[in-house]
Write a structure and sequence with these properties.
Blueprint: H1 3-6, H2 14-17, H3 34-41, E1 58-63, E2 69-74, E3 77-83, H4 85-88, H5 98-108, E4 118-122, H6 127-135, H7 140-145, H8 150-162, H9 172-184, E5 188-189, E6 195-196, H10 206-214, E7 221-224, H11 226-235, E8 244-253, E9 256-264, E10 267-275, H12 280-290, H13 299-305, H14 311-324, E11 326-327, E12 333-334, H15 342-350, H16 355-381, E13 385-389, H17 396-403, E14 410-413, H18 422-433, H19 452-461, E15 466-470, H20 473-485, E16 490-493, E17 507-511, H21 517-527, E18 536-540, E19 563-564, H22 567-572, E20 583-584, E21 587-589, H23 595-608, E22 612-617, H24 629-637, E23 643-646, E24 649-653
Parallel strand pairs: 1-4, 4-7, 8-13, 13-14, 16-23, 18-21
Antiparallel strand pairs: 1-2, 2-3, 5-6, 8-9, 9-10, 11-12, 15-24, 16-17, 17-22, 18-22, 19-20, 23-24
Length: 655
């Protein structure tokens, strides 16, 4: 039995599954409550209802943790990836992605979720889902963690999401919560004899709860391990017939923080697993919390600050983190102190240290320990083609260091590799398990699309504030390029939205990257970003080697990695580089994948001689990226953005 078979968690027998009658559902528990659907989805857009074909092999994959996401595949091809935050407008939404699921079921399943062949739940521990249902948490970061002090934040994360008694068993809070814990969970020992609190011992049957909430049959739900999902997500983008050394590392998932495996002959063999007690991801998040920012959202701010510190000041800070976490002789992470003591250790040793020194210390430590970890397993297995997944691999500076390891032959990084990517891994698992031919992902423009009639009807409703004109694709590219060449800022909401954390042109704010003054315009009037944070460029694929130092010719369509920039980049697009170390996190724009965006860049190049534009996400600070024309106009209403290019309409705010 291979690892894909053993990762299938058959938690309940059929008798147990049907022990609770779920055939009669109220409107409160159904996926499609008419009133809720009409009010939440908004008027635009209305997905068309295609003719349903029962032979389509339709799989739905659910990620119900932070940044809840759904994925849909038909006959092995992913046709939809959509995060709940894009619909409910709550950043990093947590829980069942109800609105995203409504959209997908209506568009791809003829309005009935039971038309899906299988539903994959990404994770074997549903305790987080239990908490979300009981307490109504919607936004994992801002609603759960932000209002609390460092210690309280960390305690809530550990206690109420992962139910790990060891963290707080000697605290007063534990004894006050004892009756609450007994109400929902029992005890069970794992193979090593340690007490664990997994999903299978929570007294209420959460598979039945989930099935009831979304309106499906419990026997159609399959669970897959969290880190296996991360690993398999990468494989949807590469040639799955090759042999890969696969890495997954994040804060925590199903009690673990990292796994290493080998993919070969359609099978995944796990070589190494690391407990959450030794989590690099959680350690980094503790530093984010220590610096007064929001864990699980603001890690990139620490990474962005790191280059500003003086190297001679950073060494002593890095040594503090080296005392906390190390790599063992067998290639796993370990720590001489318990994870519950990590934050206190940081506070005790770094309380009066400069912000930039702490940022640089944890960043350089992260880069060094990750490269040591990856190199260990390359040397041990002899496999030089690697894949990287999990939230820690969102650290694009660390990924750069991994890519530069001499022993590495090729690297693929899962786009938006946080937990939102679990939905992709779930789809890969199901299609591979049921021998459905898998079609490789070539782009991630897999979200919603505004219909032309809906756009025009909505623009008519706001004509008191905006003028608009309808243009052909060629006319639109030329007009927008001219506006950008004149150093104006243009928002673009066109075509199918890109999935994930990176804006890739279809839901982006664009400007001329040759002048630093445009950064001030973006920050002061639109984005309100921290002053030290860099912006990023979209670059014509055929010209990308002019701007990045990329000797291995790695394809970079997803903004997953940084490079050193060339002298020409520092001359042409200084506003899209890191201001201090001049590194660059590029998106290459392929004519075959996004022809309309490519055409815009070509027109801009004709006017300026520059093959790139500054590209940042189309959102207000702290909000998710826009999805619909309504979201786009809301953002214009609440910022000083003047221009919007939306499919065939150029929209201009009235003075």
């Amino acid at each position: 039995m291979n690892i894909l078979e053993t990762s299938l968690k058959t938690v309940y027998t059929k008798q147990e599954i049907f022990s609770k009658n779920i055939s009669k559902k109220t409107s409160d528990s159904m996926l499609f409550d008419k009133k809720d659907h009409n009010s939440s989805m908004g008027k635009y857009p209305h997905p068309p209802t295609p003719e349903y074909n029962k032979n389509k092999n339709i799989i739905i994959s659910l990620q119900c943790g932070h940044n809840a996401t759904i994925g849909v595949s038909i006959n092995g091809e992913i046709v939809c990836l959509l995060s709940e935050e894009r619909l409910n407008r709550l950043k990093n939404s947590f829980g069942i992605p109800k609105l995203a699921l409504q959209y997908a079921v209506k568009k791809y399943l003829n309005g009935d979720i039971k038309n899906a062949d299988k539903i994959i739940y990404c994770g074997t521990d549903l305790s987080g889902l239990r908490v979300a249902e009981d307490f109504g948490f919607k936004s994992f970061g801002s609603r759960l963690l932000y209002p609390y002090s460092y210690t309280q934040r960390d305690m809530l994360l550990k206690q109420y999401i992962f139910y790990k008694r060891k963290f707080f068993k000697n605290t007063h809070l534990f004894h006050k919560c004892k009756s609450f814990i007994k109400k929902f969970i029992g005890k069970k020992r794992n193979e090593q004899g340690k007490w664990i609190f997994p999903f299978i011992v929570i007294r209420r049957n959460l598979i039945n709860v989930l099935a009831e909430k979304i309106g499906c049959n419990p026997q159609d739900i399959i669970q897959i391990d969290h880190h296996i999902s991360h690993i398999l997500a990468s494989l949807y983008f590469v040639n799955k017939d090759k042999k890969y050394l696969c890495f997954s590392i994040d804060g925590v998932g199903d009690g673990m923080c990292a796994k290493v495996g080998v993919w070969e002959n359609s099978d995944l063999k796990i070589l190494s697993t690391t407990s959450e007690q030794y989590s690099l991801g959680l350690l980094y998040s503790k530093v984010v919390s220590f610096l007064g920012m929001l864990p699980l959202e603001h890690e990139f701010k620490v990474m962005g600050m790191a280059p500003y510190a003086k190297p001679e000041q950073v060494k002593r800070v890095k040594e503090i983190f080296e005392e906390i976490l190390q790599i063992t002789s067998d290639g796993n992470f370990t720590s001489p102190i318990t994870d519950s003591q990590h934050l206190n250790y940081i506070i005790d040793n770094l309380m009066f240290e400069r912000f930039d020194n702490v940022s640089a210390g944890v960043q350089i430590f992260t880069e060094e320990i990750l490269t040591k970890w990856v190199k260990f397993w390359i040397d041990k297995t002899g496999i030089k083609d690697i894949t990287l997944g999990g939230g820690v691999m969102m650290n694009v500076k660390a990924v750069k260091k991994i890519y530069e390891i001499p022993e590495v032959n090729s690297v693929f990084i899962t786009p938006s590799s946080g937990d939102e990517s679990l939905a992709i891994g779930g789809l890969f698992y199901a299609n591979n398990k049921f021998d459905i031919p898998i079609k490789r992902i070539t782009d991630i423009y897999l979200g919603r699309q505004n219909e032309e009639n809906d756009i025009e009807n909505y623009l008519k409703s706001v004509n008191d504030r905006y003028t608009y004109e309808k243009l052909s694709e060629d006319e639109m590219a030329k007009k927008v390029a001219q506006i950008l060449a004149n150093d104006e800022v243009v928002a673009r909401c066109a075509g199918k939205e890109e999935w994930g954390a990176r804006a890739l042109g279809n839901r982006s704010i664009l400007c001329n990257a040759s002048h630093f003054k445009n950064i001030d315009i973006l920050n002061q009037y639109i984005k309100d970003r921290d002053f030290w944070m860099p912006f990023t460029p979209s670059i014509l694929k055929e010209d990308i080697d002019k701007y990045i130092v990329n000797p291995r010719k790695m394809d970079v369509p997803y903004m997953c990695i940084t490079f050193d920039s060339t002298p020409l980049a520092q001359k042409h697009i200084p506003a899209a580089l890191h201001p201090y170390d001049h590194t660059i996190r590029p998106q290459s724009v392929d004519k075959e994948i996004n022809p309309s965006y490519h055409k815009l860049l070509c027109e801009f190049k004709k006017l300026t001689g520059i093959s790139a534009l500054l590209n940042t996400s189309f959102n207000l600070h702290g909000q998710p990226n826009v999805s619909t024309i309504e979201d786009a106009i809301f953002t214009l209403d609440n910022s000083k953005l003047k221009y919007l290019a939306t499919d065939n309409f150029l929209v201009i705010k009235k003075e």
